[in-house]
Structures are given as structure tokens and as C-alpha cells.
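quick one, two chains, predict together pls
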Amino acid sequence: MASLGACGEWLVSTYEKKLIAIHTKKNREPFVFDCSAAEQKPKDPEADNKSDGSEETGSDKILAFSVSSSAKLVALTDDTKRLVLFRCEPSWQVISTRWVVRRCTSLVFTEAEDEVWAADKSGDVYSFSVVEPQKTGELKLGHLSMLLSMTLTPNDKYVVTADRDEKIRVSHLRSPHNIQAFCLGHLEFVSSLLAPPGHPQWLLSGSGDGTMKLWEYESGRRLQSWDLKQLRDMPKSDTEKETRSAVSRIAGSPGGHHVAVQCERVPSVQLFGMEQGTEERLMPSSRLTLPHCPLDLTFDPQGRLWVLLDSRETPFLVYTHTQDSWQCDSESPEMKRVTEALQPHWEALQVSAGLESRFQHLYKGNFDNMASYREKKQQRLQQQKEQGGKKRGPGKGQQSNGASKKAKKGNQPGPVTKASS
Amino acid sequence: MSVSMPQKRYYRQRAHSNPMADHTFEYPVCPEDMDWSQLYPEFFSDHQSTQKAAQVEFADIGCGYGGLLVELSPLFPKQLILGLEIRVKVSDYVQDRVRSLRAAETGSYQNIACLRSNAMKYLPNFFSKGQGLVYTNTDVEEVHLWMVKHFSEHLLFTRVPDAELVDDVIISRLGTCTEEGKKVQRNGGKNYLAVFRRVEDQN
């Protein structure tokens, strides 16, 4: 898994187990952090007595990272359940390494930069103190389904969490038990969220249903919705399932004028801009065709769009918005500097984007308990009818085959859970 | 045409169902999209259109074989009562039972219905935020203490003292009209009751 983010004048990317921060303007030595060489979890003497085999070792792969609002702090979380906090100024340094209870999918700093929040695969959200960097996490709220994305709204008022059960929940940050609203409308898991800069009431969400939706998060009201597949002018295919493409990233420009959307396994980026008019509306503006499917994308503080590719020669594409269109800047000095700085590290980074989907396994299988039950019930009723109907009353006397089958069935366990996901 | 009463023995299912398993449930995308007229046809027929749309005001979470629904129906004839049950056979039993009762007594039992769903996950899909009361009842003291602990610790709920519940019509029936309740009575077990009220956030 690879990802990209801007941290002030640094460009931060993660590849599998490594985080690499490269300065875009000055020739400084890149900062590399390798999770496989990171602090190991101290052995708990009590745990040695337990032989439940729950201590599976993680793969050290980076699952998520976040940059704080002032770009002074970065946090990452990996498959070995580490939560590592870094400072970026005056130089990159690990502040602390803590441990999460379950693997996390999303990290976000508060605007005040006093806490970093982590959302995990079991549906729980923990907050970790930045001011006390060794303090253990505090449980804040929980969903009943895997959390896939999380964001905070301006002034740290609300925490927005999105899960596999198509739900987006808006809760008060300081009293997270108090749910403000649900933004309900997606038909599949919600894979990405963005509180777009410059629009304090707005929330953007992307889903496995291939749509992006715009919400007024405080009320849960849906304002707009776009089917990204339709925007790509895809013809309707019979094999809908194979062409399902989840929204994997929604990024917003710092000025609040543009939004970039990436869908998995799609070699293009869809851009949106603000429509001129009395009412604020977002409109699709242009679509950028890429040489391959991007790994991730981000806007830098100058409003340029950086796209991360799995390519040694051109790992980064930079687009700038001039006049009314987006142009690829192949001469960008920043892009050239960063590309060059990345070269010596490329081999060791083991970039393995592949065509592996991060989201395919999140689509729910349909295990319809009702259908098979209804069939059997129909058979039973049919058999009863054919035997001239039964006398009403407690179940004594002869039972038809159908009835005895039913009685036996009653002793068996209830709905069978799916064997495979 | 009379609809015969369903016989429980054809609908037996063990009490435990894994609510975290991924079974297919039908649920609306959001509460506004829910078509309640399918469950309560009499309340949503054309001649009712001028009246304010009826809303479900009572929800029996884990309604089992529907004992409480049937008991409460005549006590609150103008209010909609919904039972939620996760088990396939049991929810089907209640639906058949309601159909049969409605056919047997015209005009009655129109205000009760049962939905098969996972309340833990999908309650927000059916219902928007509201105020109200939560009635909890169990014969297992540990469960009672667990529920009391969590509701009491939850800053948005406060316990309703017993003194305020003296005239409550629901309380007196909670422990007696359901399958489980009757079983407890037969075995001489005890009923543990606790009621909580949703309060405003203090912040």
C-alpha cells in the first residue's frame, strides 16, 4: 500500500513499510522511517503465560498516516499496531511509539494539535495525547462495523466516522457519545471522507457504490451526489460487480476551490470546481487521464495537485490550475527535485501497488436466509393442504412429513453464518 | 377469508443469533425512505392522507414471538408499535400472527407489525433521533446490573425512579405477556426492571 501527503514544504509518501519525507524546495537529506526496524512491543510477562496464540506478529506495513494542520507533526500507524508520532521541525524525529489495541485504518490530528485520533478495524475510535506523547489511548466512540475513514470538522467541533455498513456518523468531539447526525445515503461501504477546506458546513464522502456525496454534516442533509462511473462515460456493463470501483481518495485544495477524486483501478482523476452563482455548488470540471492507475494524490500548500504513480522514472505528476484547466507541469522544479531524491531509495521501497484492490473484500456477500426459509415453508404449507388440512390445536397425533421435518429443524442452530467473506 | 393462527412449533428457533454476522437484511437507506404503509396499511390509506403521517412510537427490540406487541396493541390503538426481531423463523411467526389477528378482528391489531432486522446495526436507518423512554426487563440479575450500569453511565440517559412508574401501563405487562416472561413466571423467577429517559446533552 502506498500513500501521499503534503507536510508544509515536505512531500511525504509511504510505501509498504517505509515512510519517506522529501523536501520540495531545498536539497535536504530525505527522512526515512522503516517500520520493520522500529521499536518492538515490550514483552508483557503475564502474556507469556497465556498460550492462546493471540500474539500474531504484524507485517510492519503502514496502514495510515496523518499530517497536523501546522505541518509540524506527523503520525503513522502500521500493521504491527504501532502508533508513531513524529515532529518535522527543526528536523524529523520520532517523539513516541505507542501501541493500539487493533489495527487502524485512519488517523487524524485535532486542529489544536493536542490529540491524534485513531479509528480501528473493530469500529472503535481512540484519542491519543500529543502533549503527553507516552499516554495510552482513550476510547472515544464505537461503530458496530469496521471503520474505514475519519475526519474532524473545523474548530474540532465534530468527529465524523464512516464504516463498512454504509454509515457516516457525526458526533460531538468533546462528548462523542452524543451523536449529532447520521449522513445516510450510500449503498455500500464508505471508503473516504473529506471536510473540504474553505467550506465549514460541508462534508464529502466516497463509497464502494462508486459515488461521491456532498453533505451538510450538522443536519445530515444530502446536498449533491455524483456517480463517478457515469462521469467517466462508462457504458453500462452486464458484469456490474467486476467493474465496481470504490472511491479511494478525495482531496481538497487549500483555497477551497477544487476537489480531486480518485477511484481504485481507474487510470484517471476526476476534478471538481466551485460553480459560479448565488448558491454554492460543486461541479465536475475536468478529468485527467494518467499513464497508469494512481497510488494516491494530494494537494500541496500552493494548490498544486500531486499524483503518486508506481513508476521509477515518473513517480510524481504535478498539475497546476491555470485559466480554466489543469495542466501537467513536467518542468516543475519541485517535482524534479523530489523524483531525483527518491531514486536511491526506490529499490529498498519495494513499491508493490499491483492491481490489488484495497476495497474488493469490503463488499458484502448476500446470504439470503429468508429465501431458503420461505421455500421450505411453502413446501410445508403445500403438504399440509394436500393432506386435507390439519385440525387446529396443540401438536399431538400424527404429523405429516413436512411437520416432523420442521420440528427437527427447530432444534438446529439458527441462521448459518457465512463461511467466507 | 380467515387466516389461521400460526403454530409456534413450526417457527422454533434457538434464542441466539450472531448480530455481527453478515446476513442479508432489508433496510431503507435512511428513515425518510422507509415505507411504513406496507406494515400499517390502515394508517396510511388514502382517506388518512390529510392527517399527519403516523409514526412508530414504540419499538420492541428483540420482540420474539410478539407477545408484548399483541398485549400493547389495544392499549395504544392510535399509536404505531413496531417489533424488531433478528431471527428468520421467529420474525416470520410474528408477521403471520399479526396477519391472522387482523383478519380475525377487523380494525384491530392494525397498529402492530414486525420487521426482521439487526437493531444494533440498523436502528438509525429506520428511525431518526428522538426523545423518549427505554424500558429494560430481564430475569437475569447480571444482565440487569449490566444494563443499569451502562445506561446510568451514559450521559444522555437518566434512570426513571420507581415512584414515577407506579401508573405505567407498560410496566405491569412487561414481565408477563411474552414467551420469556411466562417462562420466568412458571419457574418462579424474578423480574428486574429498569427504565431510562433520554436527556439533553449538558454541554
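Helices of chain B lie at 67-72, 88-104, 119-126, 141-153, 171-174, 179-186.
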